[in-house]
Amino acid sequence: MQHNMKISSLDAISIKKxxxxxxxxxxxxxxxxxxxIVAQEKFPKAVTKLKNTKYDCFYEDSRIDLFLSELQxxxxx
Length: 77
What we know:
Elements: H1 9-25, H2 31-42, H3 44-50, H4 64-71
Helix pairs in contact: 1-2, 2-3
């Protein structure tokens, strides 16, 4: 059985960098939305588990760091 890699702090940094680029392209997107969208593209299964929880940063920018931290408890898939 293959063990999946966990989402790492480097992945979290990468998500933040890509979300900043997304905001530059689409200025109407808030940071929390951009982080959520980028994370969902990279790690759809993990992000689905965090959707509509206290970690979800899509509607609440103040949860971005919490979201990225919690994301690292999941497999990179």
